[in-house]
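Quick one: structure tokens for this chain, please?
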Amino acid sequence: MNYPQHAHSEHGDLDVDDFTRVIEYFNRYYIRLPTMQQLSFTTLSVLDTLASNGPRRLTELAKTEQISQPGLTQLVTRLERDGLLERRRDPTDGRAVLIHITEEGRRVGQTRNEDRGRHLSPVIAQLTPAERQAIAAALPVLRRIAELGAQLKQ
């Protein structure tokens, strides 16, 4: 991919515009990988947020997932009906409710990751050892970017 370089977005040897385009390109490919579970991106994001970060109030989830509270309430109701989430009283505030992921909800996320991994494996096998090593070396940095970004949203 050849993208024009933009000096305003460079940080040392990293062009942020190029980085953004490549991540977007990869994300489009990744989210379209075939999976057994045909769930919306928002559904999977909610499940992943709860699996990774623990129970959340609806207001917190609406903010992190960038969805309206009424839209999220409908989604949570549907996922609760499907056995993927459950509402429980907040032990620190009896008036509030926390949304918890169920074991079935965790299984859905895990199955989806396994499905995607099965489709990615043959593609990754076509990379050179140096390319695979470069990706492995970048994983901690990509994780850190995601963590820093999540902290900025709070």
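The longest strand covers residues 93-101.
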